[in-house]
Specification:
Pfam family, one: RuvA_C
Shape: globular
Order of helices and strands: EEEHEEHHHHHHHH
CATH topology of one domain: DNA polymerase, domain 1
Helix content: 40-55%
Subcellular location: Cytoplasm
CATH class of one domain: Mainly Alpha
Number of helices: 9
Keywords: ATP-binding, Cytoplasm, DNA damage, DNA recombination, DNA repair, DNA-binding, Helicase, Hydrolase, Nucleotide-binding
Number of strands: 5
GO molecular function: ATP binding; four-way junction DNA binding; four-way junction helicase activity
Protein name: Holliday junction branch migration complex subunit RuvA
Distance between the termini: 54 Å
Largest sheet: 5 strands, mixed, barrel
Length: 218
């Protein structure tokens, strides 16, 4: 399996790029968000990839981080979600946004992706809500791994529409709440809400905000 492509970008299409690796051009499908963040032709790029294998097709899909690729694989496991829909969801929300939406049960955010209807959006949330804490906790480790590319072929990070807490901060906050005895699902929901309300918050700030959300009302 091809897990990563690093080389020179030689062509940009409406939904894909071609990357030259040692004289071989690889066509890689990317989301709108990733495409917008990539440099111009001739520049060095590196993308983590997932290979879709069908009887009549071999297609590479590219992602700026391992975290985003993990969400793609989970989304593809939901009935009714194909590669196109998964890329639309990630292109609209990004990996962090997908995690927050699923943890909070916000299927409306998922539905905002082009071509995703309300029934499919609700199915995504229902089927993946239990997996969101684990993926969010993995975010810090995967983000660190994403930064291990050689300097001459940097991994291109897709720029989110607004600042967001780092994956590692969310992962650390989840771990801290778990150590305090909170269930993974409620901890993930609180961290996701805190992250959405306080873009750019560090780990201590996320923990404080999440604890306030989890505090008994009344």
């Amino acid at each position: 399996m091809i897990g990563r492509i690093a080389g020179r970008l030689i062509h940009r299409g409406p939904d894909h790029v071609m990357i030259d690796v040692g004289g071989v051009g690889y066509i890689v499908q990317v989301s709108d968000r990733t495409l917008a963040a990539l440099p111009g032709p001739g520049e060095a790029v590196a993308l983590f990839t997932d290979l879709l294998v069908r009887e009549d097709l071999l297609q590479l899909y590219g992602f700026p981080t391992l975290h985003e690729r993990e969400w793609h694989r989970l989304l593809m496991g939901v009935q009714g979600i194909g590669a196109k829909a998964s890329m639309a969801i990630l292109g609209t929300l990004g990996a962090e946004g997908v995690g927050r939406a699923i943890a909070l049960g916000d299927w409306g955010a998922i539905k905002a992706a082009p071509g995703v209807g309300p029934k499919i959006a609700q199915r995504v949330v229902n089927e993946l809500k239990g997996k969101a804490p684990g993926v969010m906790a993995l975010g810090g480790t995967l983000a660190a791994a994403s930064g291990m590319a050689p300097a001459d072929t940097p991994v291109i990070e897709a720029a989110p529409p607004r600042p967001a807490p780092s994956a590692s901060a969310q992962a650390e906050a989840l771990s801290a709440l778990g150590n305090l005895g909170y269930a993974p699902s409620e901890a993930a929901g609180a961290v996701a809400q805190a992250a959405g309300e306080a873009p750019g918050a560090d780990t201590p700030a996320l923990i404080r905000a999440a604890l306030k959300l989890l505090a008994p009302k009344g």
